[in-house]
Amino acid sequence: MSVLDLARPEIRTLQPYSSARMEAGGAQIMLNANESAWEPAGDAALGCNRYPDPQPAALLQALAALYGVQREQLCVGRGSDEAIDLLVRAFCRAGQDAVVIQPPTFGMYAVSARIQNAAVIEVSLAQDFSLDVPALLAAITPAVKLVFLCTPNNPSGKSISRDDIERVAQALAGKALLVVDEAYIEFSDQPSAIDLIGRYEHLAVLRTLSKAWALAGARIGTLVANPEVIGLIRRIMQPYPLPLPCVTAALVALSPSGQVAAREHIAIVREQRVLMRDALAGLPGVREVLTSDANFLAVRFDDAGAVYQRLLQAGIVVRDVRRYPKLHDTLRITVGTPEENARVLAVLNEMTLNKVQA
């Protein structure tokens, strides 16, 4: 059985749109896309008067080297969100198929599924936010086409062990595509699941340049998968997903000097994460600081609402995740610069002092 047998049959036979840029080849004069022949004012030679390559070769090569894969295993788009949406549309028939998620987790898996009118089967994480593998596998039905795993998980910060990922992959062979979202993997000691793709053709991995690579505003996300899956996804994605300035920014970030800078910042975040965890855990009113392998900490408070408002008054916005299962008393705090982190702690200490004095 091919992994493509899991996909929607009409997508497998779809004739993809052939963009003007794909047909350009090595032409010197391009008159096939109704573009302007003149660059816009202030373009700085980016060439924005021309449509960009659908899958820029230089960017694919840089990402292939970064992730240790072949270019044919990559599809680059507008953040991981686009890849999630495309996977759901490619594999789930509206009103018939389903995805499996493990709340509390990243919300776009369910949103993309519901937009497609695919069912969302929820298998809650264990009380310690670890993956409940037996419960997950018990929830798999013939309707399930995609299973999403987020590691390190957002918003808890906990990683899924490689053994558990492989155990799920083995069980889903011939049944569903396993999608491992590794948006925060650079901040973790956990190895990537990318090297498992060679053994499991139904395994796909999501990576992003938004977090560790400081390119949230550029919206560059990558789907790493079996070349057959990549070919399928490229059939249905928009013709020109990546703006030229975003590609340029990504190539700078992935250059040798850019990689050095990114790894220096990752090291600072990891160091600050430990310092923040210890400092927050010692504050009155803090119930628990969840273990995190990501660039944030999920913190339980006696009065999370009051803490959120006090930080907001001080010009600091954190993520209120109290609507998520098992996190009714929790705020998610991104690990910022040392100065930003010190300011958060100062506000919380001041809040505690004011309570004592009152």
UniProtKB/TrEMBL annotation:
Keywords: Amino-acid biosynthesis, Aminotransferase, Histidine biosynthesis, Pyridoxal phosphate, Transferase. InterPro entries: Aminotrans_II_pyridoxalP_BS (IPR001917), Aminotransferase_I/II_large (IPR004839), HisP_aminotrans (IPR005861), PyrdxlP-dep_Trfase (IPR015424), PyrdxlP-dep_Trfase_major (IPR015421), PyrdxlP-dep_Trfase_small (IPR015422). SUPFAM superfamilies: PLP-dependent transferases (SSF53383). It comes from the Bacteria. It catalyses: L-histidinol phosphate + 2-oxoglutarate = 3-(imidazol-4-yl)-2-oxopropyl phosphate + L-glutamate. Its cofactor is pyridoxal 5'-phosphate. GO terms for molecular function: histidinol-phosphate transaminase activity. It holds the Pfam family Aminotran_1_2. Belongs to the class-II pyridoxal-phosphate-dependent aminotransferase family. Histidinol-phosphate aminotransferase subfamily. This is Histidinol-phosphate aminotransferase. The gene is hisC.
